[in-house]
């Protein structure tokens, strides 16, 4: 059974990494998509989803809440009788990439600034609410 919990913890790490990549790489992808007039860049579901994802992170940071994915992974590592962050090579690599030893206020500032950039992008280049529709004010 410890093998199951270890694999589940590693899967949570990969899910966490995917979430981070979507949030972080999503913003420049949106900017490039708008610049090159790609319809997906103004898709309301994509844009609202992306905005929601970063707002969740910002809210957790301001509330001082540990990410539920991190908590869940730690619990699974305990059930697997593993020390936290001691998994397979990929899991360790992802952890080294995701987690830094900095004061919490630094992360709150980074998340808040990034969230503000996403929100500004949402307002400056709003999504299209109907397929193929473009607001009269949209010049980008």
Tell me what you see in this structure.
With 140 residues, the protein is mainly α. The chain has one domain. 69% of the residues lie in helices and 0% in strands. It is built from 5 helices and no strands. It has helices spanning 2-35, 44-63, 68-79, 89-98, 104-124. The longest helix has 34 residues, at 2-35. The chain is elongated. The termini are far apart. The mean pLDDT is 86.
Short description:
With 140 residues, the chain is mostly helical.
SSE order and pairing:
Blueprint: H1 2-35, H2 44-63, H3 68-79, H4 89-98, H5 104-124
Helix pairs in contact: 1-2, 1-3, 1-4, 1-5, 2-5
Distance between the termini: 54 Å
Rounded to the nearest angstrom, the radius of gyration is: 18 Å
- Secondary-structure element pattern, one letter each: HHHHH
Mean pLDDT: 86
Low-confidence stretches: none
Describe the largest sheet.
none
Share in helix: 55-70%
- Please state the structural category: mainly alpha
Keywords, separated by commas or semicolons:
140 residues; mainly alpha
């Amino acid at each position: 059974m410890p093998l199951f919990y270890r694999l589940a913890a590693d899967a949570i790490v990969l899910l966490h990494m995917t979430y981070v990549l979507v949030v972080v790489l999503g913003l420049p992808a949106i900017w490039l998509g708008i610049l090159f007039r790609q319809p997906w860049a103004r898709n309301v579901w994509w844009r609202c989803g992306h905005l929601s994802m970063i707002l969740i992170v910002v809210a957790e940071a301001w509330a001082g809440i540990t990410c539920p994915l991190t908590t869940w992974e730690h619990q699974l590592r305990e059930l697997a009788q593993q020390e936290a962050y001691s998994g397979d090579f990929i899991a360790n690599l992802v952890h080294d990439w995701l987690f830094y030893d900095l004061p919490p206020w630094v992360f709150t500032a980074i998340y808040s600034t990034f969230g503000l950039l996403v929100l500004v992008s949402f307002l400056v280049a709003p999504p299209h609410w109907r397929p193929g529709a473009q607001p009269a004010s949209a010049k980008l």
